[in-house]
Specification:
- By secondary structure, the chain is α/β, with parallel strands linked by helices.
- 44% of the residues lie in helices and 18% in strands.
- It contains 12 helices and 8 strands.
- The chain has helices at 13-21, 28-35, 77-83, 90-106, 123-127, 130-142, 158-162, 183-191, 197-204, 208-213, 231-252, 257-269; strands at 37-41, 54-61, 64-71, 110-116, 148-157, 169-173, 177-179, 219-221.
- Strands 1, 2, 3, 4, 5, 6, 7 and 8 form an 8-stranded mixed beta sheet that branches.
- A hairpin with a 2-residue loop joins β2 and β3 (64-71).
- The chain is globular, with a radius of gyration of 18 Å.
């Protein structure tokens, strides 16, 4: 298993949920600034408008041109209002799709940062086709002929996270979470009681270790166990992410377009495979 940084103490799934949600946690733009050079943001979906909860743009990773698609949360009320608390609207996903197709046209690898409690469930978002936008994003990602790397840096919940994580390689920070919905949502559906979220978190297998064991993710990036990361630790985490990206892109770019597609296809087809244990 690919791991970086010092080993932490054992934390419960719910403790990792709380760390992933901490408002002081580093955001996508923090990582973009630290890992990449010459980032240029590009806005708008050319259909409806701009959605600041998804940041897209062009950057350089060492000597490689890449396209970046990132879900962005805020740290205070003003920022969260601008970023819609990191919950994308349909135009955010359509902007991402526009950037994906542009990346494929010019042969640029795609790097996505996943950090959302889910796509925005408002009436306006539903009226503008939220479900279709998420499905279209996943559909388009599945057939892109360029390498894709996704990294879950905080909360990766529901279709809002899945929409930009159909990738050849998926990384997770150790204290991030990745699941089909929030623990509160799981508890509300299963037990009709959202107060059982802590119990739900344990059952959902949403931690990086759980998801690595299920072969859903490929790499775990180690973190410390506190809610806040100091600058020295952040430098190490960002450097480790950068090293993993460079290493994996070097391998992926040696593949043909057909091999890149096949690699992504096999990754998702192999999820959930298990070996039958024969009784003696």
């Amino acid at each position: 298993m690919e791991v970086k940084n010092r080993m932490p103490k054992n934390l419960s799934a719910w403790e990792r949920v709380e760390i992933a949600r901490n408002s002081n946690r580093k955001t996508a733009l923090d990582y973009i600034e630290k890992i990449f050079d010459e980032f240029i943001e590009l806005q708008g979906d050319r259909l409806y408008g701009e959605d600041a909860s998804i940041v897209c743009g062009l950057a350089r990773l060492k000597n490689q041109n890449v396209t970046i698609i990132a879900e962005q949360k805020g740290r205070n009320t003003k920022e969260n209002m601008k970023r819609n608390f990191g919950m994308p609207n349909p135009e955010g996903y359509r902007k991402a799709i526009r950037m994906m197709k542009q990346a494929e046209k010019f042969g640029r690898p795609i790097i996505t940062f996943v950090d959302t409690k889910g796509a925005y469930p408002g009436i306006g978002a539903e009226e503008r086709g939220q479900g279709e936008a998420i499905a279209k994003s996943m559909f388009e990602m599945s057939k892109l002929q360029v390498p894709i790397i996704a990294i879950v840096i905080g909360e990766g919940s529901s279709g809002g996270a899945l929409a930009i994580s159909i990738a050849n390689k998926i990384y997770m920070l150790e204290n991030a979470i990745y699941s089909i919905l929030s623990p509160e949502g799981y508890a509300s559906i299963l037990w009709k009681d959202s107060s059982r979220a802590k119990e739900a978190a344990e059952k959902m297998k949403l931690t990086a270790k759980d998801l690595y064991d299920f072969k859903i993710i490929d790499t775990i990036i180690k973190e410390n166990t506190s809610d806040e990361v100091n600058e020295e630790e952040f430098e190490k985490i960002a450097q480790n992410i950068q090293e993993e990206m460079v290493k994996d892109l070097t391998k992926l770019e040696k593949m043909s377009k057909e091999e890149i597609l096949e690699d992504r296809y096999r990754k998702f087809r192999n999820i959930g495979e298990y070996k039958t244990i024969k009784s003696e």
